[in-house]
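Narrative progress, year one. The postdoctoral researcher (J.K.) led the effort to move from monomer predictions toward full complexes, under supervision of the PI. The following entry was the first complex the group processed end to end, covering 998 residues in total.
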Amino acid sequence: MGLLRRIVTLGRRARMEREIDAELHEHMQMCIDDNVAGGMSRKAAEREARLRFGSPVAARERVSEEDAALGIESLWRDVQMALRGFVKSPGFSIVVVATLALGIGANTAVFELLDAVRLRSLPVSKPAELAELRIAGGNHGFGINQGAFMYFTIPMWQEVKDHHEPFSGVFAWRTSDILIGAANESRRVNGLEVSGGFFSALGVAPWQGRLIEPQDDATCQLTKVVASYGFWKSQMGSVPISANSTIVVEGKTLPVVGVSPPGFFGMEVGNQFDLAYPTCTPPKPRRDMFVYSVIGRLKPGWSMKQASDYLSALSPGIFERTAPSGYSAEAIKGFKNFRLEAHSAEGGVSYLREQYSSSLNLLLAITGLVLLIASANLANLMLARSSRRQREVAIRMALGATRARLLRQMLIESALLAFSGAGLGVALAQPLSKALVASLDTTGNSIHLAITIDWRVLLFAAGVGVATCVVCGTVPAFRSSKTEPVSSMRSGERGLVGNRERFWVQRAMVITQVAVSMVLLVGALLFVRSYRNLATMNPGFRASGIVLGYFGFGHLHMKQENLPVFKRQLVEDVRALPGIENATATNNAPLSGGSWGHTVDVGELNGASKFSYVSPTYFATLNIPILKGRGFTEHDTSDTPYVLIVNQAFVKQYIRSSSPIGQHVHVRPEQDYPERTYEIVGTIPDTKYGDLREDPPPAAFVPAAQVPVTGQRPGMTMMIAARDASGVERTIRQFFEQKYPGINMQFANFEQGIRDGLVGDRLMAMLSGAFGMLAALLVVIGLYGVLSYFLSQCRGEIGIRLALGATRGRVIGESLMGALRMLGIGLIVGALLTLLAGKEASTMVYGLKPWDPPTLIAAAGLLAVVTVVTSLAPALKAANVNPIETLRAD
Amino acid sequence: MAKNDLQGALDLLILKTLSQLSSMHGYGIVNHIRRVSDELLIVEEGSLYPALHRMEQNGLVRSKWAITNYGRKAKWYSLTRVGKEQLAAREENWQQVAKGVDAILRFA
């Protein structure tokens, strides 16, 4: 009933207040009447009553505060008042909202990315039940590894398929590029090879037609494909799937049997598959080639731990039965000791996650710090604004407004600002996040992430908004509500500042800003320098103007023993083409993601070494000098003694005699690579092998003509040097298509590929640099604002001092000293913070220590210059105060 | 444990006054409390009217405008049925509180 009345009275504030006023007025009159009746004069009675009663407005406010409906209405009135205030000072409002929008936008953008890469579950039913099967601790590089996440050989997968007690369903999958379209206009798309149980175990239903099913496992021929929703829409024109839907894959026309639902990207976060096709199990699969990732769905009642225990108990049998042959007894013993375990695959697997997780965390921290600086700026702005409004506050308090009411008013103002900033920030975050993803894209690998605003993102933005509101609203609000009305009415706006300690909050905020931006600038400089180190590093060989060519000639069905001659012919053909400087075959191009190694015995010593099988032209093509001995020639063939060229790391690790030339290197056997003894005939300098960051590992080179016949494959990688790399592909394609019709060719720019490998470093350098600059800019704005405010508050004092004979130089000097003191403290705190934060970043920078004096000095110097320049303007302005005018104004 | 605290005292005084006088305006309530308590309890206007307003909103009292004996217009308050029930409950509650406070004061 009471509530009903409250609602009815909503909006009848004026009437209500009139009624309260009337009641209070009558009360006072009765009081006066009594006093007069008691013998007082009318005037004295009125005075007495008023003294007793206090301010009628305040009394009315107190009564109406009891009214809940009026409470809501007054809240609305406060909001309106705040909005009117913002409209009246548009500059202030725009700066505040824009700063917040940028700060919160950047934070939310990074968070969205983190969310998409790391936090979100796979878009399948009950993703928490999914478990990825792995070899505990990995396979230590045993055999041939086709990529990250591939823990299973085909025989291992067949074992698990037959023993999957803890799982209601298991499936194997891998990603692999496949070629679509007719031969002359073919291109690579993202293929997804899946076993028959894939879609049913994941609980993914077809969007159209049917998906890959268990009976599709039967044949090894590629007979059908399933299109992803995106591929079906963009490449197949969204034409409904029928018996006539076909596509040319690897030169064969295949039916498209169905379409997977939108949003399903496969198992790998960041990688959208285009076509899915059934796994192929050859009759005698290789036992040392790890090709599949295997995932199972836990049966109800099974925990991840129980499943792991089950797999572990099963492992000795599995690895006993699937052990490969042709390896040393030691290697096989290691293989048989492998143990399987289950890991949660709720979020799918992700190369991005492993690659960029720590970068993203760091970015989130950086954007958080930028937001902190922005918040401190805003707090200072609000503080200055509230001080300017002290007189207004004092008048309102004198008129009976309670402190709580004023506090509420201020908080409403900052909440309005914070939330319009947060709203805009969320809107900004989407394009920012997409731009971030786009900058991670490389020529060879595009990233597909579902950047969407979900509840986590909104919750995050709201949280950031609230935190900002608290930081930049509460302090000013509390301070001004503590105002003593009388003293501030007397001194407000006049520059009669009782004591300077009042500014400690502002000072502390400027110091915090300097310290935090010092950390950010040091970080930025470190990342920029680290990227520069990597980008300008000399890998030890020529990278510019080198084209990688991949040639496949399986369709010629050549005998293995004929392949070496054919491959040599291809290299000679390419070398003879116009515009091409040189060309070489290699089984593995450096810095391109691959690796090839053998275990060697050199005298007493043994261990691993990289092995490359190259043409005699390899060293000339890549500008690698021969330091000692000789290079390879056309006369090094499979009929002549086996020869080896090694790098300095190899010499250092394995050669104990004075000269490496003539030393014998024994290579242990592996499948297709029988054991052999080579003689070292030359040495070369160290060159980078797998990663620019890593020191060159021991590496050995063998003439391509001496590759064991059993190791010959109908395909090769060629590194082609040309002055103009862009024309190489066309020249070779034209020539080879005529001479060897049907040959499969692919080309890539070697240098571009190396640069793509640095995309994460480039991103960190770019973003941390940008945020560092933004931080410095915010510090400039904040410092300028605070100094101008200090000095405007001290105008009277400065005027008096000038009048008493202080020189302008002294006034300027003193205000600069104030700024420099804050700067000094800020820099010291910043340096200490950098030391603490440095540990986190040290693994991410190359060739630098986090405690790097030149970087620290550079950051501190930059901040110092910025501070001095910024503080000069307000200081000069203060010193130019005309003492007469200031004093007259008081 | 007695519900409500000592702050409920003002509400109790107002409710009791209204039950004794059946209907009264704010000024009259102040005077009544002062007279009956031998000037020991003086209710401030600043507390009285917010309390009356709150009780009216909660349906404990009802009000109407009427003329006083001395010809002034005033808002007259009287108890509602809910108010009477509340009074009984609060009186009992107050006894408990008073007993409790007394016990604490006597504790040596």
